[in-house]
Amino acid sequence: MDKGIQPVTLRGTHVRLEPASTDHAEAMCKAAHDRPFTLFSRHIDSDTVEGCREQLQFLIDHPTTLPFTLFDARTDELIGGTTYCDIRPAHRGVEIGWTWITKERRGSVVNPEMKYLLLRHAFETDLFESGPAIRVVLKTHHENLRSQAAISKLGAKHEANLRNHVIMPDGSYRHSVVYSILEDEWDKVKDVLKNRLGEI
After folding, report:
1. What CA–CA distances, in Å, run from 78 to 10, 28, 81, 97?
2. I need a labelling partner for 77 at 20 to 30 A (CA). Which of 17, 34, 119, 173 fits?
3. Residue-by-residue DSSP string for 107-126
4. Tens digit of pLDDT for each residue in 161-180?
5. How far apart are CA 135 and CA 142, in angstroms?
6. Which pairing describes strands 93-101 and 135-141: parallel, antiparallel, or unpaired?
7. What is the helix (H) or strand (E) element at residue 97, kind and residue range?
8. For residue 116, which of 4, 7, 16 has the smallest C-alpha distance?
9. Are 79 and 141 in contact (CB under 8 A)?
10. Does residue 200 carry a pLDDT above 60?
């Protein structure tokens, strides 16, 4: 299936992002023991290997998503996942979403390096046949204050709150908080991330 962008492995000092595979389901099930998906719009049965496999297959098969599995670069331990989603080749736009990180790694270098790798790949390579991305979006649940703080810390601009945007698996309504980074803002965001990573 041509999704408009190609799978790639992204390597950093601390983390490695590999194209997601259903072969990762067993390790994903073990890693996701604290159910980090409760604020996602689609129910993920992370208590079973089959549930994790179905979720990975859903993201792999979806026409506008390119999922990654997140590994510790030094130990090869599976520590999370993320996805390029809402892929829009004609407009050179993409969203980074469906992100989860194991509880022990939250608040560490993992999230900023993962975002650095994804954003650098989007803005500094020919992500699309027509060139690099000109816009990257990040969205989160209105109750996910940790995620909102992390996105703001990146330097992404708050754009909107989409009210009653999604009906959640439990029937509640999610307002989606929307942020974006544009191509001419990437250098500043990159400097923030590199400073956090101690690279400059």
Report:
1. 15, 7, 8, 18
2. 119
3. TSSHHHHHHHHHHHHHHHS-
4. 999 999 988 899 999 999 99
5. 22
6. parallel
7. strand 93-101
8. 16
9. no
10. no
